[in-house]
Structure formats: structure tokens, C-alpha cells
């Protein structure tokens, strides 16, 4: 469909294009005449989620975490719990006013609306001495059951106090910033602003409580676990203390290390002293063998034996002091010098006793007795000293071995206790660390959940532009475009022949001319009907120019179906050609319905059924045809009646009339093929019932 066709199609339905939008606009105007005024307000809140300051510095810009936090916050704002709490608080504030009016909270209309919703006894029952008490009563009454007035009001479609109405509070993040915007529309300017303030108050409390309670539960868990770990650690430490106390342990590892070292040291000393003692004893036995007689008697005297025992006792005591002094890590005892002095004195006394008896004795080898006695004394002192040391060290070794055997099995038990302490200590430190982190997180939440109002809600002074104008414009334009779409769609789907170009495309035949319908045999002057007929007559006369001179120009007028305009076309052409001075004969099938004013003088009827059977010549049907210059032979409907096939070879032109308001069907094509098989004359289409606009394709 070209643009011209589209415009023509729209022009054809111009009344519908204008009427439908006007009708829709009128209906919208009527039904929206009582439209309510709507006031809108908004507020902006800073959250600090994306770039706020925390205990660890500026918040990290994690896209997913930030998006998740904003989603949680926006979902909390739109949750039913928040809306229900806002509705309860709004209702409590309004109930607290009683019958008085506060223009900052609501208008007279809204107060009257509240009185209509809740009867006076119920308002008195819900109203407390102060706002907190009123709010408590409202909450309790609404939650008492699901059949009371408040429950039904909260779950109704009321524009002020219902949960559904508060669902109109729109919340959205402003681009990628830390700001969110709340918007609300209501029929009362004061309620619009106050609802936003209550919404901010309620969801801020819920948001803070949600974040802080979440961390508080974690803190309580870590506090319990930390206390449990501390008790386990204390119990292990008490077992460790009792174990050390019961086993006389100060430092087990140092003690065992000392015992092991001291045992090695004693073994080494004992070996050395045993060798010295054995040498001294051997030398003493050799000297005793050399001494004989009185010398042996002198050594066995009571005085010398006493001094000898005295010396042995002093050496034992001195050895004990030296051993203990070494165990005390080298700090010498104050008794040691005195003991050494006594040893020296006793040794000197023994030497004096031996010197007193020096002259009385002699040896069997002739050696001086004094030298033997001195050697004896020296060996005796060495043997006595080594014997005393050896006795003390053996005793001390026995004590160390007993301590060694006592300490050895304590190591495994001590290791178990130490492992328990280590495990308990690590558990306690880990839990303590988590507890500190949780407390820091709680403190961080308290800092970051502090929402700040950047732009508070304002009280609108003027209502928003209503939707009435928008609805009117939408209805008018929508109706226009809807009708236009229908018209254009119908034009695109239209399969009718409509105009010459479409008829030529569907039939494959040239179009000789067009005729409006109904067509008078003699159209009025200067009309579209006259122009169409004259054009068709000119085309016909141009075709007649190729006819054989002296022979009538025979034109067959046919159509696939009845009522396609054959008779009107034949009558009009006959009248026009007669008016042009041509001797014209028109033959019509018998039974043709003529218009009374259209019966021309040369009209002849013939029996088409009989002609189809008897196959007469054209002159047999009308003697005047032989002398005529133009013969118009109308045939019956090709698809519905019998037609004289023998007359068709005489035709020099076949006009196939087709209505413009019909479609070209396969059976029409079959009829055309049958017609062409009966005649060699060209077949051209005359489209009838064509609009003047469509006829301009071939008309001037």
C-alpha cells in the first residue's frame, strides 16, 4: 500500500477517525469529573553503605556487598511489617488529637474520614493518656484477632491507614551514591509529609535493631564459649599446680636436666676417687708390711687411733660440705675453712705423736723409721680422705638415683597436663579474639547504621497535576491511532479488485475502463459518470479502428457472475455510440431487467439457452446487426448460465465486466480460460463500481 493509498483509506473513514477519539475523550471526561487531588512529597536519606566511615577506615567499595546492603535496606522499607507499624503510628497520632485539629498532621477532611472509619466508642477505647499508651492500645487491638475494626482497616483499601496505601511509599537508590529517596503521594498534604517522616523513623529503628541484634547474638555466643574455655584453662592450670606441688617440682625440665648432669658428674668423681682410694690403700698396705714390731704397736696406740678416727670424721664432714657446696653451684660453705683447719690440726697432731715415738722404732730393711711413719701418715690421710669422699659420693649418688627414678615417670603426666593447658589456652585466645572482633563489628554497626536525613520531607502546597488531562489526551490519541490502525490494517488485508491496477494484477488482463455504479444510460453532464463512460467509449472506438471495413464491429460483453454490470455497460455504450452517430445494435439475453428509461430503440433480446443449443449466426438473432456499424452482444453469466459459444468467434473484442468490491477467485480464472478457448478476440476488463478516486488511475 502506497502512501497515497493509505491517506485515501484514512480519508474514506474520516468520520470514524474523528468520532471515536471524540467519543473516548467525552467518556473519560465524564468518568473522571470527580478525580481526587493528589499531593506528593519526598525525602533523601544518607546511608553511608558504600563510602561511609567505619572503625577500620572508609568502607570498601565491594559492588556485590554494597548492592546486597541496599537491597536489604530497600526491602526492609517496603516490607509489610514496616508498613503496618507506620499505619499504627499514624493512626495513634491521629487518635491522640481527639476531636481537635492539628494542621501539621491532617486536614478536616481527613479527620472526618477517620471519624467515619472508627466509631466514637472505639476511638475512646483506643485513645490513651499519652501517645505511647495510645500506640500500645492500637497495636494490641489490631493484633487481638483478625475480625476487629482495626485489623480490617489495616488490610482494607483505605487511602490513608491501610497497608496497601502505604505500599505507595517508593524507595530507590539515587544512581550509585549512598543516598536513597523516599517518595509518597496522598490526598492530604499533611498526611503525605508525616507518613514519610514515620516511615523514616520506623525503618531506621528496624534497620538498626536488625544489624545490632544480629551481632549481639554472635557476641553472646562468643562470650559463653570464651567463659567455658577460660574455665577449662583454669582447671588445667590448677591440675598443673597441684601436680607440681604434690611432686615437689619447680621446673621439671631444669630439675631433670640437673639430676642427669649431677649423676654423670658424681659417676666421674666416684671413679676418680675410687682409683685414688685404691692407690692410697695399696700404698698404705705396703707401708704396713714394712713396719713391724714396736712400730706397729705405736700405730695401734690408743692416742693415734683416736686421732685417726677424728681425722676420718673430719674428712667425711669436709666431703659432705664440698659436695653440697658444688650442688649450690660453687658457693663455698663457711664451715669448710674451719673443717680444713681442723683436718690440718689433726694431721699435725698425728705427726707429733708419730715424731714422739720416732727414736724407738726401725725397719727391717734398715730404712729410718721416721720416713716410713711419714709415708704411712700421708697414705693414711689420702686413704682416709678418699674413703670419706667416696662414702659421701656413694650416698649422694644413691639419693640422686632415687630422685631420678621418681622424676622419670612424672614427665609423661606433666606433658599431658601441659598439652591440655596449651590446647585450652589456644582455644581461649581464639575465642577471645573472635569476641573482640564481634564487639568491634557491633560498634561498627552502630556507627554505620546511623541513617541521616539529608533532605527532610516537605509539605506540598499544591496538588500534582491530575491524570485527567493525560487520560483525555491518551484516550483521544489512542482512539485515533486505534481506528487508523484498523483502517490501514484492513486496507493491507483487502483482497478486492478495487481499482484498475489491482484488477490487472489479479486477473492478468488489461483494464479498458472503469464505470461507477449505478450508471445511468445517459449520465449527467460534467460528472464522473460521464467522464468514465466517455473514456470507455473512446477506448472502444479506438479498438473499432482495427475492424474490417464494411463489417460490423462486434463487442461481446461478459462477466463470470450475474449482477456485474454487463447490462448497464451495454446500455451506456449503446446510448453513447448512438449519440456519436454510429449505427449500434445491442443484443441482450432474454429476461434481462432493464431500467425503464434505459430501453433504447436498437435493443434486441435473444434466447441465450436456445442459442447455446441451436448455435445460430449473429444475423439470425438480429437482422439489423448485418447493417450495423457496432454490435454489442451481452452474454449471460459465464459461471451461472449457458451462453452461445458460436457467436464468440464473430466477436472482435470481449469486455469482461468485474465488480470492484469482489475478489478474483480460481473459478473466475476457469471461466476466463473457457472464454478464451471460445474466441481469439482480446479480452479486456471493465471494472464497475469503482470510486472516483480509484478511477483516476486511468481517467484524467
From TrEMBL:
Which InterPro entries does the record associate with it? Bact_polysacc_biosynth/exp, P-loop_NTPase
Q: Does the keyword Oxidoreductase apply?
A: no
Task: Enumerate the Gene3D superfamilies for this protein.
Answer: P-loop containing nucleotide triphosphate hydrolases (3.40.50.300)
Question: What keywords would UniProt list here?
Answer: Membrane, Plasmid, Transmembrane, Transmembrane helix
Query: Where exactly are the transmembrane stretches of this chain?
Result: 12-31, 470-493
* Protein name in the entry: Polysaccharide chain length determinant N-terminal domain-containing protein
State the organism's lineage.
Bacteria, Pseudomonadati, Bacteroidota, Cytophagia, Cytophagales
Amino acid at each position: 500500500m502506497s502512501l497515497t493509498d493509505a491517506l485515501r483509506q484514512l480519508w474514506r473513514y474520516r468520520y470514524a477517525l474523528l468520532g471515536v477519539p471524540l467519543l473516548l475523550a467525552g467518556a473519560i471526561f465524564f468518568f473522571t469529573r470527580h478525580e481526587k487531588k493528589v499531593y506528593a512529597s519526598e525525602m533523601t536519606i544518607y546511608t553511608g553503605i558504600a563510602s561511609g566511615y567505619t572503625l577500620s577506615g572508609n568502607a570498601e567499595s565491594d559492588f556485590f556487598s554494597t548492592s546486597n546492603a541496599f537491597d536489604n535496606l530497600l526491602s526492609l522499607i517496603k516490607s509489610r511489617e514496616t508498613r503496618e507499624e507506620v499505619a499504627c503510628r499514624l493512626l495513634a497520632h491521629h487518635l491522640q488529637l481527639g476531636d481537635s485539629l492539628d494542621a501539621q498532621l491532617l486536614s478536616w477532611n481527613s479527620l472526618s474520614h477517620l471519624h467515619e472509619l472508627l466509631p466514637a466508642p472505639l476511638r475512646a477505647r483506643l485513645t490513651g493518656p499519652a501517645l505511647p499508651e495510645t500506640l500500645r492500645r492500637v497495636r494490641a487491638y489490631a493484633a487481638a484477632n483478625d475480625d476487629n475494626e482495626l485489623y480490617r482497616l489495616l488490610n482494607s483499601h483505605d487511602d490513608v491507614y491501610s497497608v496497601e496505601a502505604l505500599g505507595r511509599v517508593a524507595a530507590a537508590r539515587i544512581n550509585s551514591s549512598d543516598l536513597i529517596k523516599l517518595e509518597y503521594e496522598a490526598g492530604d498534604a499533611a498526611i503525605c509529609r508525616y507518613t514519610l517522616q514515620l516511615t523514616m523513623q520506623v525503618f531506621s529503628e528496624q534497620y538498626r535493631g536488625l544489624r545490632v541484634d544480629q551481632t549481639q547474638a554472635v557476641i553472646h555466643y562468643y562470650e559463653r564459649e570464651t567463659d567455658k574455655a577460660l574455665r577449662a584453662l583454669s582447671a588445667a592450670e590448677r591440675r598443673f599446680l597441684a601436680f607440681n606441688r604434690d611432686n615437689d617440682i619447680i621446673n621439671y625440665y631444669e630439675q631433670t636436666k640437673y639430676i642427669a648432669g649431677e649423676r654423670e658428674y658424681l659417676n666421674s668423681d666416684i671413679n676418680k676417687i675410687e682409683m685414688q682410694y685404691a692407690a692410697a690403700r695399696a700404698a698404705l698396705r705396703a707401708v704396713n708390711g714394712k713396719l713391724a714390731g714396736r712400730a706397729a704397736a705405736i700405730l695401734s696406740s690408743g692416742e693415734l687411733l683416736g686421732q685417726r678416727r677424728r681425722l676420718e670424721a673430719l674428712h667425711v664432714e669436709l666431703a659432705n660440705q664440698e659436695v653440697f657446696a658444688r650442688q649450690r653451684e660453687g658457693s663455698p660453705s663457711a664451715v669448710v675453712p674451719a673443717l680444713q683447719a681442723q683436718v690440718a690440726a689433726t694431721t699435725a697432731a698425728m705427726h707429733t705423736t708419730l715424731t714422739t715415738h720416732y727414736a724407738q722404732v726401725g725397719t727391717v730393711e734398715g730404712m729410718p723409721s721416721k720416713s716410713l711413719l711419714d709415708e704411712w701418715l700421708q697414705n693414711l690421710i689420702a686413704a682416709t680422705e678418699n674413703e670419706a669422699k667416696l662414702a659421701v659420693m656413694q650416698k649422694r649418688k644413691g639419693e640422686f638415683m632415687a630422685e631420678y627414678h621418681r622424676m622419670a615417670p612424672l614427665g609423661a603426666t606433666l606433658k599431658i597436663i601441659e598439652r591440655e593447658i596449651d590446647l585450652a589456652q589456644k582455644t581461649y585466645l581464639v575465642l577471645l579474639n573472635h569476641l573482640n572482633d564481634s564487639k568491634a563489628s557491633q560498634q561498627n554497626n552502630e556507627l554505620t547504621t546511623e541513617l541521616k536525613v539529608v533532605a527532610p520531607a516537605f509539605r506540598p502546597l499544591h496538588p500534582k497535576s491530575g491524570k485527567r488531562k493525560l487520560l483525555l489526551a491518551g484516550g483521544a490519541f489512542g482512539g485515533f491511532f486505534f481506528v487508523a490502525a484498523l483502517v490501514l490494517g484492513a486496507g493491507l488485508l483487502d483482497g478486492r479488485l478495487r481499482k484498475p491496477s489491482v484488477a490487472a494484477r489479479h486477473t492478468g488482463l488489461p483494464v479498458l475502463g472503469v464505470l461507477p455504479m449505478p450508471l445511468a444510460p445517459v449520465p449527467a453532464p460534467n460528472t464522473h459518470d460521464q467522464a468514465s463512460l466517455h473514456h470507455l467509449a473512446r477506448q472502444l472506438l479506438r479498438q473499432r479502428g482495427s475492424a474490417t471495413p464494411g463489417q460490423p464491429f462486434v463487442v461481446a460483453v461478459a462477466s463470470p457472475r450475474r449482477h456485474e454490470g454487463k447490462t448497464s455497460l451495454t446500455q451506456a455504450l449503446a446510448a453513447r455510440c448512438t449519440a456519436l452517430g454510429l449505427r449500434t445494435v445491442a443484443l441482450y439475453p432474454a429476461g434481462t431487467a432493464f431500467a425503464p428509461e434505459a430501453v433504447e430503440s436498437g435493443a434486441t433480446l435473444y434466447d441465450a439457452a436456445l442459442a447455446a443449443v441451436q448455435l445460430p449466426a449473429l444475423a439470425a438473432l438480429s437482422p439489423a446487426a448485418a447493417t450495423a456499424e457496432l454490435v454489442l452482444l451481452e452474454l449471460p453469466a459465464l459461471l451461472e448460465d449457458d451462453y452461445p459459444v458460436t457467436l464468440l468467434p464473430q466477436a472482435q473484442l470481449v469486455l469482461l465486466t468485474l465488480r470492484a468490491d469482489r475478489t478474483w477467485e480460481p473459478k473466475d480464472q476457469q471461466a476466463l480460460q473457457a472464454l478464451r478457448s471460445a474466441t481469439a478476440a482480446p479480452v479486456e476488463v471493465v471494472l464497475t463500481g469503482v470510486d472516483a478516486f480509484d478511477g483516476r488511475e486511468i481517467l484524467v
